[in-house]
UniProtKB/TrEMBL annotation:
<protein>
    <submittedName>
        <fullName>Uncharacterized protein</fullName>
    </submittedName>
</protein>
Length: 123
């Protein structure tokens, strides 16, 4: 089932490189608008939010639409890794507010090693 939005975390990625990748994958990006620590743009018709160092060295990329080429976070994360060659993390499925902390710490790591489930304590 297609997720209503997509959020992935990228390590050591430059937001301009991410914008270039999104421009190729979704559609041309508008110039980034900075609001505090957050950067926003549109890739084609998709609203994009980039939060540098959201969790330590990890940058958050949030695509606020289901109109992306990817079915879910994992498909997007794998495409991001292939294009940018940086480690990417994402939740294993849609996140629910009522999930336990243990469930919330389950993440997928996408790297040169492939996809593996890890425990990542972000809180």
């Amino acid at each position: 089932m297609r997720q209503p939005d997509i959020e992935i975390y990228l390590k050591d990625a430059e937001h301009q490189a991410v914008a270039d990748w999104l421009g190729q994958a979704i559609g041309p990006c508008t110039p980034w608008q900075q609001k505090g620590q957050t950067f926003k743009c549109r890739a084609g018709e998709v609203p994009v939010t980039w939060l540098p160092k959201a969790v330590g060295k990890w940058h958050s990329l949030f695509l606020e639409s289901d109109a992306t080429p990817w079915e879910d976070d994992l498909a997007c994360a794998q495409a991001a890794f292939a294009a940018l060659q940086v480690e990417v993390r994402c939740a294993p499925g849609g996140w629910q507010e009522e999930e336990s902390d243990e469930q919330a710490d389950r993440w997928l790591r996408i790297s040169a090693d492939g996809v593996e489930e890890i425990t990542w304590r972000t809180g």
